[in-house]
Amino acid sequence: RLPLYILHEEAAAVFTQISTYYTIKNLFSHLEIGLNATFQRDKAIARFCREQDITWQEFPQDGVLRARRDRRDWDQAFHIFMLSAQAKVSLSAVQSAVLPDALSTPAVPAEFLENVPEFQPGGETTARRYLHSFRQERAVHYSRHISKPGESRRSCSRLSPYLAFGCISARQVWQFVEDYAAQSPYSRQLKNFQSRIRWRSHFIQKLESDFRLEWLDINRGFAGLVRGRDPEVFAAWSQGRTGVPIVDANMRCLRATGYVNFRMRAMLATFWSFTLWQDWRIGAQWLAQLFLDFEPGIHYPQWQMQSGTTGYHTLRIYNPTTQSERHDTTGAFVRTWVPELAHVPVPQLYEPWKMTALEQTWYQCRIGEDYPSPIVDVEKANRENKDIYWAFRQSEAVQNELPAVWKRMCLAEDAAAYKAGIRLRQGWKSA
Questions:
Q1: Which residues contact 96 (CB under 8 A, 6 or more apart)?
Q2: pLDDT of 430
């Protein structure tokens, strides 16, 4: 057995300390596509390695190509990587160094070590257990339940935290599915899941192409589109007190467990960006703190896609009532997380503000007292804000940015489809 040292400190400071006791020749790490903070950390480590004549080798996990200016040949390179042999390391030949007591770093904060029962447990062993149970049984309803806020908690793979923390790699997952998909009774579901692994890497590549997506609009032409920064609106949305049940249920669930499915995340984003007409950066920063599986390369491009700041994606504004009717048909998910509405039946549960005074008494929920009135008129706000957005999206500033955005962010076939779609829409408009 070899000792494992966990040092809680800025990386450059740790390696500077270690280098006073040992001569470092090689540094091995995962290749991380992260935030501006981690990018600046990596640049500091790169400088340190150059100054100390250290060979730093990074190992990719996701099929993401470093330092690419465009997406030419990306798909081919992704599939080659995913099917390539995984590195095998024998620890039997490794000699362990003993770090001196004089080397000190701040203690790991107690909250980092606290066990939260509502969160998925960590570790590679647990990750592999999730992967096996998904292949063997849970995948049976994967495609059918992927958008349902309650059922998806079991039917989805739930591997995203382990991928985000590096407990298991996308290549390991891809090859595991590749080996079993053909012979599995759930082959179609597994192939659908596999396509989302590719989709995941495709989005992470976007952040690798431009790390500033954390705060800059993908389409710089949207810099002039002003949305709000209202602290009262933020308080209602972030605490699950908007008065819109499916929105509040998902926010409360996310705060408690660190997880909601993709469709519900998209709904939270469009509700913030379009229904409430607030700056996407504030919403993105808040949810980044809540997601147990926070992956910057998914998070920021997706927030911009849902907020419409790419200028080319199909605009989707998720209507909360429609999402409830389609994906929480019995109301079980909402009642679990919004107990104020526990006695309200479907369909009143979806729009409780429409209940009469007598119904509110029957169902033991007074709107405005036991549960908030809606913070906005959802349909009216969506309609008005969508009109503002579309007028801006057709502006010269946004349209002129599109060729550069397609080159930097899109696969060739996607860019061609977007261009064709825009030409078609412009033809409709002129007609």
A1: 2, 3
A2: 33
Judged on CB neighbours under 10 Å (0-12, 13-18, 19+), 133 is middle
Helix extents (H) in 166-315? 170-181, 187-209, 231-238, 245-257, 262-270, 280-290, 296-307
The per-residue pLDDT for range 335-383, each reduced to its tens digit, is: 999 999 999 999 999 999 999 999 999 999 999 999 999 999 999 999 9
Which tokens in the block code for residue 150? 């309650």
CA–CA distance from 105 to each of 22, 39, 40, 110, 114 (Å)?
Answer: 17, 22, 20, 15, 20
* Residue entry with tokens 């467990």: 257
Distance CA 205, CA 301 (A): 10
Q: What is the pLDDT of residues 11-28, one digit of tens each?
A: 999 999 999 999 999 999
Closest listed residue to residue 213, CA positions, set 382, 34, 369, 375: 34
**Contact criterion met (CB below 8 Å) for 257 and 360:** no
Look at residue 429 and tell me whether its pLDDT is greater than 60. no
Distance CA 44, CA 42 (A): 5
Cβ neighbours, 10 Å, residue 79: 13
pLDDT of residue 419: 66
Q: Would you say 117 and 141 are in contact if contact means Cβ atoms under 8 Å apart?
A: no
Put residue 258 in one of left, alpha, beta given phi > 0 → left and psi -120 to 50 → alpha. Answer: left
